[in-house]
Amino acid sequence: MAKTSGEIEKEFIENLKAATGKDLSGWLSAIKKSGIEKRNDIISWLKKDNPFGHMNASLLAGIYFNDGKPVYGSEEDLLENQFKGKDGIRSLYSDFISFALENFPGSTVLPKKTYVSINAKREFAAINIKANELRIGLDLGSMPFNDLVQKSKLTGPMPRISHMIIITDKENLNKQLKDLMAESHKKVS
After folding, report:
1. How far is CA 184 from CA 2, 94, 132, 142, in A?
2. CB–CB of 115/126 below 8 Å?
3. What pTM did the predictor assign?
4. Is 108 within a domain?
5. Is the pLDDT of residue 89 over 80?
6. Is 38 inside a domain boundary?
């Protein structure tokens, strides 16, 4: 089974000193002393002048900009960060998660940094939490877009999440949504 972002980040932090000669606080100090302020410039500097590949440089820059704390430390923190300023949609989110798990038993819900992933064998649905709506992303292949099923505008999930449905209230949790989710789920089963 693939490692989660949290597991990868944790291993990175634990092995940092052995791999580079500096622990996390040493690298955070080095970044600060470098005077570089932009994330992409820090990543470039870490890759060019230090012993980091792109993924590890990105992890370290992410931790630096997260006040020195792991970005993927806990799924609860990742989800709570997505709800900042959006508490009004929390009830609908909970209703949607219940709807998804009831209709697709064995699926897992995995908060990521910018979205929430729903997985069977792989991701078949994704959620972007907005202030007044949930954007539900699905892998519907070449299905034509219409008033309900739009081109995906989600932040974060894989490109195969091609379509999205916007839900704004509990009435949107209906057979039509279930059927569309089933079509996406079928692709991973």
Report:
1. 21, 21, 24, 12
2. yes
3. 0.69
4. yes
5. yes
6. yes
Q: Do the domain assignments include residue 40?
A: yes
Residues 58 and 98 in one domain: no
Residue 173: which domain range? 76-188
SS3 of the chain: helix, strand, coil, percent, to 5: 50, 15, 35
The residues that bridge with 135 in the sheet, in sequence order, are: 128, 166
Vertex 68, ends 66 and 72: CA angle to 5°?
Answer: 60
CB 70 within 8 Å of CB 23: no
- The candidate with the shortest Cα–Cα distance to 27, out of 2, 50, 55, is 50
101 within domain boundaries: yes
Which residues, in sequence order, are bridge partners of residue 123? 119
Q: Tokens at residue 9, please?
A: 């980040």
Q: Do residues 61 and 152 both lie within one domain?
A: no
Give the pLDDT band of residue 156 (cuts 50, 70, 90).
Answer: confident
